[in-house]
Amino acid sequence: MKCRRCENKASVHMRQHKLALCKEHYLEWIPEQTERFIKKYEMFTRHERILVAVSGGKDSLSLWDILVRLGYQVDGLYLGLGIDGGIGYSDESRRLTEKFANANNLKLHIVDIEKEYGQPIPVLSQISHRGYGKPCAVCGLAKRHEMNRIARDLGYDVLATGHNLDDEAAVLFGNTLSWSGDYLLRQGPVLAGAQGLARKVKPLCRFYEREMTAYAIARDIEYIYEECPFADGSQSIFYKESLNLLETARPGVKLTFYLNFLEAKKSGNLFVDRNAGQALLHSCPKCGQPTSAPDLCSFCRMIGKASTARTPDLQL
Ligand code: Q46
Ligand code: ZN
Ligand code: ZN
Hints:
Elements: E1 12-14, E2 19-21, H1 23-40, E3 49-53, H2 58-69, E4 73-80, H3 89-103, E5 108-112, H4 113-117, H5 121-128, H6 136-153, E6 158-160, H7 165-177, H8 181-186, E7 190-191, E8 199-201, H9 209-218, H10 235-249, H11 253-266, E9 282-283, E10 290-291, H12 298-308
Parallel strand pairs: 3-4, 3-6, 4-5, 6-8
Antiparallel strand pairs: 1-2, 7-8, 9-10
Helix pairs in contact: 2-9, 5-6, 7-10, 7-11
């Protein structure tokens, strides 16, 4: 298949967008789309200072790369969590993050949780008895706290994270399964800032995970392939796998799930009591049954149409 923008052979095929591009045009398309999402959701402007949370993974390093290429004022923040997991996870992710920052001449802030608070995340988790054996609850809490502290102390306007569509759809799936109304209402590409809280944005939230992998590879970004060892068996991975099954059968379903949710939220249609609209019903002038249609009810209109149409020859 050919690239949509030139005569070359396409190297990235995006079935869900009905789009195929060569490497060169793919490397243009991702930043263009990111810029479109930044504007559409009013994430930030070129006058604001952005702090991007980088973990050494493909999403956050790619996000940093894209924002710099788009000309935004963006620095990085790496949080040392002190997670080893037999693979030296934190050491390796820090090494790759520093390598990326140095190679591109970018400013990187490094905060080591153990140095700052005396213990690494897994030990803090044990001591505090939160999270039932997994350090993720403490880790999430510490990450949110530290990102916000650094953004506030160093005067950044916005905090950007590399969450992609697969991450967001999995969170949405989980929140929908449990009908967590508060979480659903807070989920989105932008979380407005409040007193003492930086605005949070997710510029990659409409890209599939595999699109970000393709970008990082095409751009030659060296990133850590391993997930955090504690991610194994997590609920979010289970939700991602479930959504991937749906996506295989119906390409695009993940994106529609997420975008239609954003639409419903924007139009105020999320959690609206439909029964409240009963007052708008009136009696159908033909059958007398209640209807919301402007004139005849749908049934009477259907029968009306059927009686005027030519009767088809039924073969029984
Ligand atoms: S929360 Fe849990 Fe992650 Fe922290 S301990 Fe690892 S898996 S890094 S996204
Ligand atoms: Zn091309
Ligand atoms: Zn506090």
